Amino acid sequence: MTNNIRLLVLDVDGTIAGVSNEVRQPVIEALQAVRDRGIAVAIATGRMYRSALRFHEAVGSQLPLIAYNGAWIQDPKTDKIHQQLQISSEDALELLDYFEQAELRSRISVHFYSQDRLYVREILDETQQYARRSGVEPIAVGDLRSILDYPLTKVLAMGSDPHLMLQISKTLQEKYSRDRLYLTQSTAMYFEATHPEVSKGAAVRFLTEEILGLEAQQVMAIGDNFNDAEMIAYAGIGVAMGNAPEPVRAMAKWTAPGVEEDGVAVALRRFLTPELVNS
Fold this sequence. Notes:
This protein is of the alpha/beta class.
């Protein structure tokens, strides 16, 4: 089971980074053991590219970094950009109009991402919390329509009510077909929209087959939310974190303990370095 895996792909938030917003030492040590076996490690996250860089470094990755759920793939070593997919200004405007309905405007914050910068209407408490966790300074522009001509990588709506965010997700997924927009949730509080060709599954496939010349059966992928579903399904060993929604856990080969229990370390010892379990 273990000898065939040549690539390990990890989500960030809810997978290797929990409340502390850092990769904990047991996970660092488990990843070192994996790299010692010659297994490459990659990051696939919904985060901005520059927000994900420190995690790319923390896990010792030497591969291109998958950011924005796969809309942006860039090699930090060479700065080569393998992929940048953008949302059309027309779709971004439609989404903004929906989010700014009277019954939603005061309940959610809207983020536009362009050229690895974050643009918001105004700086709210939740914006500041997001900025602290991501390490990115938001740019307040008032009316987000003012930047619709910018190349937009992602649109995100953020709210404090998970039921509302789930309803937004369901409503917009009924409105937009998969060949129009890729719509997903990376947490219960975040709803995200990107180019229709985007998914972590497609990005991991590109990394696996086009960059490394490997096959899906040689990949292990670990994630914790709906935006991880495609890569979990693609990988030969797809693992869901214990804190993942039930539909994501159901499609995984195995469910690890939650992020606060260092579930990634447990999964790596189980599948990739079993000789270390009782050491």
